[in-house]
Amino acid sequence: MEAFESGVLDLPDFYFTGDDYRYRFELDAKRRFIQALREQFNSGVKYKSCVLKWDTVIEQKANELGRFLVGKSSVLEFDEPAPRLERQDNHEIRAKILALTQSEAKQLGIGKSTLHYLKKRARNQKPFTIYEPVLAKLTC
Questions:
Q1: pTM above 0.70, yes or no
Q2: Going by C-beta distance under 8 Å and a sequence separation of 6 or more, which residues neighbour residue 137?
Q3: Per-10-residue mean pLDDT, the chain, length 140
Q4: What kind and span of H or E run contains 73?
Q5: pLDDT at 88 (0 to 100)
Q6: Where are the domains of the chain?
Q7: Long-range contacts for 44-50 (Cβ within 8 Å, ≥24 apart)?
Q8: Which of the chain's termini has less CB crowding within 10 Å, N or C?
Q9: Positive or negative CA dihedral for 115, 107, 95, 126?
């Protein structure tokens, strides 16, 4: 879903083959999607009081599964870490950013350039991330 929302993939990137009733990716779209997937797997996630990359967590979970299957471990947990699928840039936050004046931003402790870039990103339809301290100021 994030690949579609960010514009990495779009409907023209797919084509229908009538002989087997499947949709296929264009080659360039596959490359863009794999690059986006790599970036997602290389993002950090908090796991056992550490911040690890997703590929490292997946490797550790595969090792835990192996130990469980051969009987070296009696516990198998796949509920942690859970992927975060929430967005910071919901419609409410976007509207608040676009309605925010320079003086209101100053009172909240948000600088001129930060407000400029927030408004620029809020006008765009692509998802964006808001720095946690700034998000806290916007949501209070």
A1: no
A2: 108, 109, 110
A3: 78 79 84 86 78 85 91 84 66 88 92 91 81 84
A4: none
A5: 63
A6: 2-41, 43-85, 91-139
A7: 45/81, 45/83, 46/81, 47/80, 47/81
A8: C
A9: positive
